[in-house]
Amino acid sequence: QVHVVESGGGLMQPVGSLRLSCAASGSIFSINTMAWYCQAPGKERELVAFITSDGNTNYPDSVKGRFTISRDNAKNTVDLQMNSLKPEDTAVYYCNINMRYWGKGTLVTVSS
Predict the structure, then answer these.
(1) What is the pLDDT tens value at each position of the chain, 112 positions in all?
(2) What pLDDT is attached to residue 93?
(3) 4-7, long-range: CB within 8 Å, 24+ apart, which pairs?
(4) Beta strand ranges found along 1-112 (DSSP E)
């Protein structure tokens, strides 16, 4: 069984910053891809940031230059540094491991 747990969400004012963390544990032989997705109310879940085992990253235009994904392969963790937050970043953020395992999500609310 694989456990994926996110942390770090909360309420932040626009232009502020938040850092999300995700830890994977359990029966994982190897972790290849790690990613963050978000799902806003009434919308579908969408990719926010993606990182491969060798550190290649990918971001949609909506967060490029504001969000940074990083991982620690020794600890099986992946972080998402979110800067210059906007109200439209408000969503539940989910961690994904190997395009298969999901956490329960952490809520990020950006509001003044």
Answers:
(1) 889 999 999 999 999 999 999 999 998 888 899 999 999 999 999 999 999 999 999 999 999 999 999 999 999 999 999 999 999 999 999 999 999 999 999 999 999 9
(2) 98
(3) 4/95, 4/96, 4/97, 4/101, 4/102, 4/103, 5/95, 5/103, 5/104, 6/93, 6/94, 6/95, 6/103, 6/104, 6/105, 6/106, 7/106
(4) 2-7, 10-12, 18-26, 34-39, 46-51, 57-58, 67-72, 77-82, 91-97, 101-102, 106-110
Measured distance CA(23)–CA(3) in Å, rounded: 8
Tokens (6 digits) for 104: 């329960």
Q: Is the dihedral of CA 56, 76, 103, 112 positive or negative?
A: negative
Is 83 within 8 Å of 67 (Cβ atoms)?
A: yes
